[in-house]
């Protein structure tokens, strides 16, 4: 059976159906291969007891799970520490990591950026108008790093 143009409509329809079925199968297989991680339950939460057990068996020298992090160590905890002990100092402009050897890094708080950083001093500036400034100056006495903070602004 031929149509007006001499084509066989049954063959054309069958070809389109086969092409559609093949496209769906390729899509399903592709999604199955690529998306295996999207539907799997590998990211299920673990219990507090599992975390505690994992921390106890860990070989890394990390803080105990019951210890709460403090923004800056207390002076009594710093006595007897080596001059290379890095301490964290939280300021309005951001966080400064420093030891007696110098300022290791400066991480700005939201709304601030690091404007200057050297071994002994640095400055955070407000990102809106550069008028808000937090200047930090590092000193060391008795093997303990101290950070002097000066805030300047309008």
UniProtKB/TrEMBL annotation:
Residues spanning the membrane: 12-38
Domain of life: Bacteria
Keywords recorded for this protein, A-Z: Membrane, Transmembrane, Transmembrane helix
Span list, region Disordered: 39-86, 108-130
Record field: compositional bias (Basic and acidic residues): 117-130
Keyword Membrane: yes
Listed name of the protein: Septum formation initiator
Organism of derivation: Paractinoplanes durhamensis
């Amino acid at each position: 059976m031929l149509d007006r143009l001499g084509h066989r409509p049954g063959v054309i329809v069958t070809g389109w159906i086969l092409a559609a079925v093949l496209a769906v199968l390729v899509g399903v297989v592709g999604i199955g291969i690529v998306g295996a991680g999207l539907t799997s339950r590998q990211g299920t939460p673990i219990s507090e007891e599992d975390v505690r057990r994992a921390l106890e068996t860990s070989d890394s020298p990390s803080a105990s799970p019951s210890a709460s992090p403090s923004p800056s160590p207390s002076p009594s905890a710093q006595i007897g520490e080596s001059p290379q002990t890095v301490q964290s100092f939280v300021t309005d402009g951001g966080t400064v990591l420093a030891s007696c050897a110098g300022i290791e890094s400066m991480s700005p708080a939201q709304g601030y950026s690091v404007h200057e950083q050297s071994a002994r001093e640095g400055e955070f500036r407000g990102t809106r108008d550069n008028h808000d400034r937090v200047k930090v100056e590092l000193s060391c006495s008795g093997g303990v790093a101290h950070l002097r903070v000066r805030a300047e602004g309008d």
